[in-house]
Every structure is written in C-alpha cells, then in structure tokens.
Design a protein that fits this description.
Elements (H helix, E strand, L loop, with lengths): L12 H11 L20 H8 L3 H8 L8 H10 L4 H10 L16 H9 L4 E5 L5 E4 L1 H7 L12 H5 L14 E3 L2 H18 L4 H13 L1 H9 L8 E7 L3 E11 L6 E6 L5 H12 L22 E2 L6
Helix pairs in contact: 2-3, 2-4, 4-5, 7-12, 10-11
C-alpha cells in the first residue's frame, strides 16, 4: 500500500546479523579452530558469548522476534562481529538507533585493531575508550586482575575506579593494585581526560564523568583545576594476586590516533620471576574461597577463551 515501507529480503536486522555472523571465522575472534565444524562462521552461542548476551536473545534477533536492542547491545554486537564503521552505523539504523556522531567517543573496535588484539593473546591486554571506559579485555587480563564483568557496566571506568565518588565503589581489579608513582598516574589520567574534552566536545558520557568526579572527589577536582593537558604515561604496577603473590608488571598504553581508543598491555621483564608468576595466573586462577579487595567472595572460574566487555543483559 502507498505510504508503507518494506524491507527487502535479507536486508533486515536479523538477516544482517546472521550474514555478518556467518562470514566471521572463529579464528578471527580468537576462538579455537575445530576441524569437524558445520558452520564456517561463528555459532550463535559464540556470538552470544562474545557480545555478552544470551543465546536466546541472539536467536530472537535473527528470527525477527526481537527488533529493538539497546544501544549498548548494538555496540557489543558490532564489536563481536568486527564490523567496519559503516557497517556499525548500518546496524544502529536497522535497530532504529541514531549512530554515534562525530565529536562523540566511540566504543567500537575496528576490525584491524581486533586482529591485532587476537595476536596479542599471550599477554594481558584490554581496550579503553577515550574516556577510559573499559570496552574489551582478554582472558589473561582477567586472570591477572580478575574478571571485570563482575562490575556494573557504568563502573567499568578507570577514572571512576581511580577517583571514587561513593565509599562502596566497585573496583575494576578484584585484588589490590599498587602504582610505583600514584601521584603521576593520577595527574596523567586527569590531564588525558581534559585532552579528551577538547577532542570530543559533544560527548555527553564524558561530560557526565568529569562532572561527577569534579563534584564528588576532591583529589580529582584539585588536579582538574590545575589545567594540565597531556597524554597518559606508561607506568609500573604491582598486582597482589591471591594465588601467585605480588606480580610487578609494566603497563604500556598504545593510543589509536583517530578514535583515541587505548590499548593497555601488561607485561613482565623476560626471564624474571614476575614473568613466571604472570604466566601462572592463567593456569592456577584464584584459590577457592579467595576474597576480593572489597571482602566479597571470588568465584574460581576458568579464564579460557576470549572475553569482551559485557553489554547490559537483555
């Protein structure tokens, strides 16, 4: 009928998710390759695990029974499917959501960056957005610091972790982490956020973050008032791991020039005792009955397989 719009076959939300899922080989997502495998691309359960949603929800999306995923779910699906920026924007539009605009912070990991991350599978690595929101991490990161998915999505932010507003804030690391020079780390983080406000002047999440920390944390307010603008610096950290003891690591930050995404890599000196301990964290995991630094119990789950930042459940 006149005035009605129809979607051509194979062009809707569910069809496109299925098409993109079928084209992505498991090896590109860091998954083990199994010889006897009917599907060349990702299975639904693999996509669900990578995107942090239920398998049932992926099924309902592909069958057209769920048509309005949240923006956070769309972002997670785009990362898990390794979509290009144009494909990501198309996925947003199919979900009836306005794509992220220029001048706002992107949580999207370009396919090339994801391929690099897969090749860094032997080291602890995570990716943060320009406002230091954690968007991706691998199993070695979780083995060293604890699985970040235990924290609510909003609290998976290094600045909120570093400058807590609430006394009972949730930490990104499940056990204590000490900086070799905490004052330098604090100053570098605040100055990097100030630099981000110039790069992304229209980003509401960044503005809310700076407003919250300025109003609720005296240390942040003091450093913000100093007006320093600089990039984050590489530092040394010591992780008090409950199974292997203290592990001292180098924390290096690589920044993508276009998106300001930050790849944070934790390594230890080759041949050192710390390198041995770092490798052991992926084998032993936390001991049964271990408590995190807030006094809560730690579930001794395994760290196998790639992990990504979890979207809000749907």
């Amino acid at each position: 009928m006149e005035g009605m719009t129809t979607t051509p076959p194979g062009a809707g939300l569910g069809a496109m998710i299925r098409t993109w899922r079928n084209r992505l080989p498991p090896s590109a997502a860091g998954l083990p390759v199994v010889r006897k495998r009917r599907a060349a691309g990702l299975r639904r359960e693999e996509l669900a695990d990578l995107a942090g949603v239920s398998v049932d929800y992926v099924v309902r999306l592909e069958q057209g029974r769920a048509t309005t995923p949240s923006a956070s779910v769309v972002a997670s699906l785009a990362r898990a499917l390794q979509l290009s920026t144009a494909e990501r924007d198309h996925l947003y539009r199919l979900a009836r959501i306005v794509p992220p605009a220029d001048g706002t912070i992107s949580d999207h990991l370009p396919p090339g960056m994801q391929r690099v991350l897969v090749r860094l599978g032997d080291v602890a690595v995570a990716v943060f957005a320009a406002d230091w929101q954690l968007v991706w991490w691998n199993h070695r990161w979780a083995a060293l610091l604890g699985d970040p998915s235990a924290a609510p999505p909003r609290m998976r932010n290094f600045a909120r972790d570093r400058f807590p507003v609430d006394a009972d804030h949730t930490s990104l690391a499940l056990w204590p982490v000490t900086d070799a020079d905490p004052d330098t780390t604090d100053a570098a983080l605040v100055s990097d956020l100030r630099r981000a406000t110039g790069r992304f002047p229209r980003d509401s999440r960044l503005a809310a973050l700076v407003g919250d920390l300025n109003a609720g944390n005296a240390r942040f307010a003091e450093l913000w008032a100093a007006g320093e603008v600089a990039a984050n610096r590489d530092v040394h950290k010591t992780v008090d791991h409950p199974s292997v003891g203290a592990v001292t690591v180098d924390c290096d930050v690589l920044t993508d020039g276009d998106t300001e995404l930050k790849i944070v890599i934790m390594t230890a000196a080759p041949g050192s005792e710390d390198e041995t301990k770092l490798q052991l964290t992926t084998v032993v995991g936390p001991p049964a009955g271990a408590r995190n630094q807030h006094g809560g119990w730690v579930h001794p789950s395994g760290g196998a397989g790639p992990l990504v930042g979890r979207a809000s459940s749907s």
